[in-house]
Amino acid sequence: MHDLVPTYLGEVTSRITAIADDASRGALDGAIDMLVDSIRAGGVIQAFGTGHSQAFAMEIAGRAGGLIPANAIRLIDLALYGSLATADLSGSGLERNPAVVEELFGLYPIHPADVLVIASNSGVNGSIVGLALTAKAAGHRVIAVTSLAHTMAVTPKHPSGKRLSDIADIVIDNRAPYGDTTVEVGNSTTGGSPAKVGAVSSITAAFIAQLLTIGVADRLAADGSTPPVYISANIPEGDEHNSALEATYGNRIKRGAPKPSPTPTEKQPMEQPPIPNERLVSNEQ
């Protein structure tokens, strides 16, 4: 294990450095401009990811140092606010199902100025591509965070035959390799088959999310306005500060689950499309 620490560190830092170099050369400026224009127009950043890429949406929306006008679109909301049962949330069938995106999109009061930022390492699953298409059809701009190395090496799963990168107005490469993993363990001398571990897309995507947040806040501050950002809820006056700014956007940003209904109705699980045998465990990023 100890000799693999520098190996993995090198894989992570080389990719973080590459993204930082891209940003220093202005590669993120177009996305930052788009987000700043949205906020100035009263818009909200709508962030979406499935599987491990839900972590990207959580970096964008609702955390200390994050922008107040940001909302995480989540598949779980189809059960919390929509028509699906909690049983529908298990496995990877939902993230691959393009049929759920219209209901998902309709759960949120999305305004014309809102921009969608969609993260997906593979960039090919049905809900990811479907939401991007739905957003574009409604006139919204879309920013994609994806692995170009991976998405160009796999077949799109959406009926349109499109990838997320085909739909987005701006594409940001998260620099993850095909398959996401970077470190090989085990070999013939140890009696087992080699295995690949050391995924990197969650780390690089989080770095991109923070660079976008920093860029937007810096641009707003440069114009003389105070960036609307969260402070930690675990410091004095944190809750008061955050709640006051959240109130500006009313129900346009969701934080947490809804209050339970006094007369809950039982929801029936939806029929799931068949899941291809080659991926029994979701590794959507």
What string, H for helix and E for strand, traces the elements in order? HHEHEHHEHEHHEEEHH
* Distance from first to last alpha carbon: 25 Å
Tally of domains: 1
Number of helices: 10
Shape: globular
What share of residues is helical? 25-40%
**Within the CATH hierarchy, at the fold level, what is the topology?**
Rossmann fold
Indicate the low-confidence ranges by residue numbers.
Answer: 274-283
**From the 3D coordinates, which CATH architecture would you assign?**
3-Layer(aba) Sandwich
Q: Structural class given helices, strands, pairing?
A: alpha/beta
Q: CATH homologous superfamily - what is it?
A: Glucose-6-phosphate isomerase like protein, domain 1
How are strands sequenced across the largest beta sheet? 2-1-3-4-5
**CATH top level class name:** Alpha Beta
Task: Compute the CA-based radius of gyration.
Answer: 20 Å
Largest sheet geometry: 5 strands, parallel
- In percent, how much strand structure appears in the residues? 5-15%
Number of strands: 7
Mean pLDDT: 89
